[in-house]
Amino acid sequence: MADKRPLNIPAGNSPVSPEPEDMLPNERRTDNRVEDYTKAIKQLHPRDFTNWTSWPCVREALMLGIGGGAAAGAVRFLGTGRVNAGANVAVLAFVGIACGSHALCVDRISKEREKMRMIQERFPHRHVSNLKKQGADWVPPPSSTGSDSKE
């Protein structure tokens, strides 16, 4: 099974951040739903919702959902002439499109991170900090992928 930890690639000369620590016993879920929800709600803070546009995929998913929901609701309203039917379709389309596009985006990002992790493990000698140590006159070794063209 693939490792699900976040990718830990330093940028340039920055140090590698430490691996995340395991959860404490009092932070783990219990069998009591009410207690779990109470602990979760107590951990929420209003500042958690002020930067939602910086979360991955959220802005794109909401924009697609709003556009798709408005279009579907307008088509339904123009087709039936009933406002309630158009509004219901608009809300349903918004939720469906937003959730679907967010799920696809998160899946795409996780596949991209997995590919980056694989490249990092396969080619550790190609990190930019190692290249800086070699100097300007350093010539990289020939590629082992066999994609070099012979002219």
UniProtKB/TrEMBL annotation:
Pfam family, one: Cox20
Cellular component, GO, one term: mitochondrial inner membrane
Keywords annotated in UniProt: Membrane, Mitochondrion, Mitochondrion inner membrane, Transmembrane, Transmembrane helix
Annotated region described as Disordered, given as residue ranges: 1-29, 130-151
InterPro entries in the cross-refs: Cox20 (IPR022533)
GO biological process, alphabetically ordered: mitochondrial respiratory chain complex IV assembly
Locations listed in the record: Mitochondrion inner membrane
Family to which this protein belongs: Belongs to the COX20 family.
The protein, known as: Cytochrome c oxidase assembly protein COX20, mitochondrial
Organism (species): Apiotrichum porosum
